[in-house]
């Protein structure tokens, strides 16, 4: 049956399946195909060893060259896996992008070959018929193996050879470390499960699981050990789940589970407790038991939403609230890496006490226009005035605050105090300027963060365009998809965004146009090397030129000598910050600095 005309402009996809009864040559055009021995499948394979729903073909767009390719998944999109697995070129896989000439085995005597070509022949079997037909090629007496060695395509034709550089990434749907499905594939599963739940009036739940203090694990034991822990947790989660459940890697230290068959209201609690009991068993590292602490958040259809976005958002909020309240600490799921764990707990208590007893204080470092000496902004910097230890540098307590999640409450206090003080200066009739506040990656992950910014701006009555939030590129790369969503939402509020610490080893100029930044801050480490290393001059010069061309504020921090300042001005830099111009000031000193700046400019 001829279903297509020869169209050299259109890429064709073909799968040739050979089972005990039939050899089928099938034109692939639809978005999805189900494969299995059940007669209701899009593609029926005839073998008692095959599963009723053995595999799924998914059509996906190749973003690089605007063409399409097909991916094959073990099982169906409801999470049911096949009994015998799927093998591509002899290697078992959960999901894989098919490439021209791939040999597929369904864990039994059923084999298939996938082809991608611009050439087309009149040998396509219509899969809409109830019973597959044998090929009606010119040579009808081809033996049962000839379809694999002599397919109805010219496989040596140059037009159908696939350039590896034009294909999607091999791990498009799979996490490379744990081999679990990643966010992209999980969303496919979730979308399909919600659609079925709506159609058949059933319940679906998702469960987000987060390993608390995972940064402390990486720091104390090293990243290779951290990776081993993630792999072990992934395996324990897989072993705990029912056949229809799915677990995926959701983030650095987060896993997400899809539970499509929830029959009773208490099912989710029972399943959660069973999962926690399994993953909370100690891991033995170098003969030392490691007990992990977890936080989790769940959402249930349709109580918590009917679409994927709302559903996931509810689970994220539940996870965040669960971490904030430390519910699991009352259930004896404690992180006991080594004696340092107790120190972290003491540090968390001390930081909370410091906030409650007003031991934290903001300092303000001016940002100066090099040519005119005018103040263009201030950066808010936190200090801890400890009653016994004196002033503690943020480099010492901020990392601890991030390990213990205390950075969320500290970061909110910093934002509120910086906005309040800036509005107070404006009410005093002092010059208007932008106030810059550093963000932690954990704040970006907080699903309520944008609302917190809105609330602070409303409380302090500060116009949003006077607030600038600084985030490092490293923090962005940790979760670029989420960061992009959050930063776009902040920019829509009118808040300015600054890429901080540019030039520290993670820098990519492409991110300046990809994300909605209005300011580029060049790292102090670059400035320290400015005089001695010509290559650093080239990097800074390129960054300044690009920033200026994109109409960004370009600020160089850490300026300490006149020689550095002169060179920066020569390179076209317009603003600078550093001890040469002014050290960080208390709010009283900053007020005096602003009063003086009205009468005379800062000497550069």
From TrEMBL:
Domain (GGDEF) ranges: 202-339
Boundaries of every FHA domain copy: 33-93
InterPro entries membership: Biofilm_reg_signaling, EAL_dom, EAL_sf, FHA_dom, GGDEF_dom, Nucleotide_cyclase, Rev_trsase/Diguanyl_cyclase, SMAD_FHA_dom_sf
CDD domains: EAL (cd01948), GGDEF (cd01949)
PROSITE patterns (alphabetical): EAL, FHA_DOMAIN, GGDEF
Listed SMART domains: EAL, FHA, GGDEF
Domain EAL: 344-598
Name under which the protein is recorded: GGDEF
The organism's taxonomic lineage, starting at the top: Bacteria, Bacillati, Cyanobacteriota, Cyanophyceae, Oscillatoriophycideae
């Amino acid at each position: 049956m001829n279903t297509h005309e020869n169209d050299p402009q259109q890429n064709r996809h073909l799968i040739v399946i050979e089972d005990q009864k039939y050899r089928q040559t099938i034109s692939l055009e639809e978005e999805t195909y189900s494969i299995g021995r059940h007669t209701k499948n899009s593609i029926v394979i005839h073998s008692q060893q095959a599963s009723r729903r053995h595999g799924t073909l998914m059509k996906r767009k190749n973003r690089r060259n605007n063409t399409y390719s097909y991916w094959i998944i073990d099982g169906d999109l409801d999470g049911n896996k096949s009994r015998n697995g799927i093998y591509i070129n002899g290697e078992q896989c959960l999901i894989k992008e098919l490439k021209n000439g791939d040999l597929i085995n369904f864990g039994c005597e059923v084999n298939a070959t996938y082809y991608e070509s611009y050439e087309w022949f009149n040998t396509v079997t219509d899969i809409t018929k109830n019973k597959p037909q044998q090929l009606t090629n010119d040579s009808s007496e081809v033996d049962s193996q000839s379809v694999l060695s002599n397919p109805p395509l010219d496989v040596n034709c140059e037009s159908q050879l696939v350039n590896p550089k034009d294909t999607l990434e091999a791990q498009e749907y799979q996490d490379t470390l744990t081999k679990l499905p990643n966010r992209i594939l999980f969303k496919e599963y979730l979308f399909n499960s919600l659609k079925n739940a709506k159609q058949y009036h059933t319940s679906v739940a998702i469960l987000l699981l987060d390993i608390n203090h995972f940064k402390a694990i990486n720091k104390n034991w090293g990243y290779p050990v951290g990776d081993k822990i993630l792999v072990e947790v992934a395996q324990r989660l897989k072993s705990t789940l029912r056949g229809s459940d799915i677990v995926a890697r959701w983030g650095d230290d987060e896993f997400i589970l899809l539970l499509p068959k929830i029959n009773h209201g208490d099912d989710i609690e029972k399943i959660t407790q069973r999962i926690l009991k399994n993953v909370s068993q100690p891991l033995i590292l170098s003969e030392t038991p490691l007990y992990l602490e977890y936080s989790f958040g769940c959402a249930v259809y349709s109580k918590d939403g009917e679409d994927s976005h709302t559903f996931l958002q509810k689970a994220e909020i539940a996870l965040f609230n669960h971490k904030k309240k430390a519910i699991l600490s009352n259930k004896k799921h404690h992180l006991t890496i080594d004696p340092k764990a107790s120190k972290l707990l003491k540090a968390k208590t001390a930081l909370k006490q410091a906030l409650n007893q007003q031991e934290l204080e903001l300092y303000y470092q001016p940002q100066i226009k090099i040519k005119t000496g005018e103040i263009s902004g201030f950066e808010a910097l936190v200090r801890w005035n400890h009653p016994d230890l004196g002033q503690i540098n943020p480099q010492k307590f901020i990392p601890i605050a991030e390990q213990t999640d205390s950075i969320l409450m500290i970061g909110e206090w910093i934002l509120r105090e910086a906005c309040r003080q800036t509005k107070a200066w404006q009410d005093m009739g002092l010059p208007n300027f932008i106030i810059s506040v550093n963000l932690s990656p954990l704040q970006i992950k907080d699903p309520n963060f944008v609302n917190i910014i809105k609330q602070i701006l409303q409380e302090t009555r500060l116009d949003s365009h006077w607030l600038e939030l600084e985030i490092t590129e490293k923090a962005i790369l940790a979760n670029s998809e989420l960061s992009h969503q959050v930063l776009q939402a902040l920019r829509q509020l009118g808040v300015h965004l600054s890429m901080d610490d540019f030039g520290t080893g993670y820098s990519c100029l492409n991110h300046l146009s990809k994300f909605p930044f209005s300011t580029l801050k060049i790292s102090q480490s670059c400035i320290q090397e400015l005089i001695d290393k010509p290559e650093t001059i080239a990097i800074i010069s390129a960054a300044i030129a690009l920033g200026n061309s994109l109409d960004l504020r370009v600020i160089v921090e850490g300026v300490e000598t006149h020689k550095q300042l002169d060179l920066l001005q020569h390179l076209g830099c317009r603003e600078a910050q550093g001890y040469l111009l002014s050290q960080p000031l208390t709010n009283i000193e900053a007020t005096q600095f602003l009063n003086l700046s009205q009468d005379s400019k800062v000497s550069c």
